[in-house]
Structure to design on (235 residues):
């Protein structure tokens, strides 16, 4: 869904514009036997006590469970399995290893080394979003040649910036023209000087932003490329 953010230009003016994720047209689509669109649905797969752990506790050992599976269908609740669920019919819950519902949790941030071994854990701290309508993203003035950006950073996402009225059209077109004429991309970050990462939602991935402008006559395009990985030569 489109959302509003505030950005700043080289003249230190800021305004609200629309940020919208770019979408590619699908390369294919799924169809049914009649050629119509496929209808997605959520169905009940199994019920409490019908999984392997529950059946094993019920029958005692694997041999007894195997005999029960041959003789009947203890893993199926024939009244509920396959039932279609609508959005308001179910809630997601967390359960313990024994299947009991977990009513309270303590979130931890676990750190591991490259081998997957745990090296530390600490209480999880919520990281607030830094991109919103309240705080304008500053103009850093740091411009990079396009070839340097694409060879130095992994660009993993991009979003489009759109105008909301005639004034913001001119505002964004001026930024796009400045960048297109310089053939460079502007570094975009949050914080007073743009040194902090871009975080679009609470606990979201932090990104570096690189603003690219393209101009074709009266038309323009302003693209914010996002990177969360810098490419470096191995030592």
């Amino acid at each position: 869904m489109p959302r509003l953010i505030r950005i700043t230009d080289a003249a230190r003016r800021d305004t609200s514009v629309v940020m919208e994720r770019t979408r590619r047209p699908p390369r294919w689509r799924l169809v049914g036997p009649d050629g119509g669109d496929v209808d997605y649905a959520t169905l009940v797969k199994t019920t409490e006590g019908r999984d392997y752990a529950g059946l094993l506790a019920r029958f005692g050992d694997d041999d007894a469970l195997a005999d029960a599976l041959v003789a009947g269908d203890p893993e199926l609740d024939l009244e509920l399995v396959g039932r279609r669920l609508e959005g308001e019919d179910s809630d997601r819950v967390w359960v313990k290893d024994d299947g009991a519902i977990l009513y309270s949790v303590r979130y931890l941030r676990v750190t591991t080394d490259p081998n997957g071994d745990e090296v530390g854990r600490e209480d999880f701290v919520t990281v607030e979003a830094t991109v919103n309508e309240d705080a304008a993203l500053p103009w850093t003035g740091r411009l990079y040649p396009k070839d340097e950006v694409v060879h130095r950073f992994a660009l993993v996402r991009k979003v489009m910036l759109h105008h909301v009225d005639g004034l913001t059209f001119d505002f964004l077109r001026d930024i796009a023209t400045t960048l297109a004429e310089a053939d460079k991309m502007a570094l975009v970050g949050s914080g007073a000087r743009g040194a902090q990462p871009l975080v679009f939602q609470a606990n979201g991935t932090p990104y570096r932003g690189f603003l690219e402008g393209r101009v074709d006559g009266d038309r323009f395009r302003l693209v914010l490329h996002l990177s969360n990985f810098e490419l470096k030569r191995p030592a």
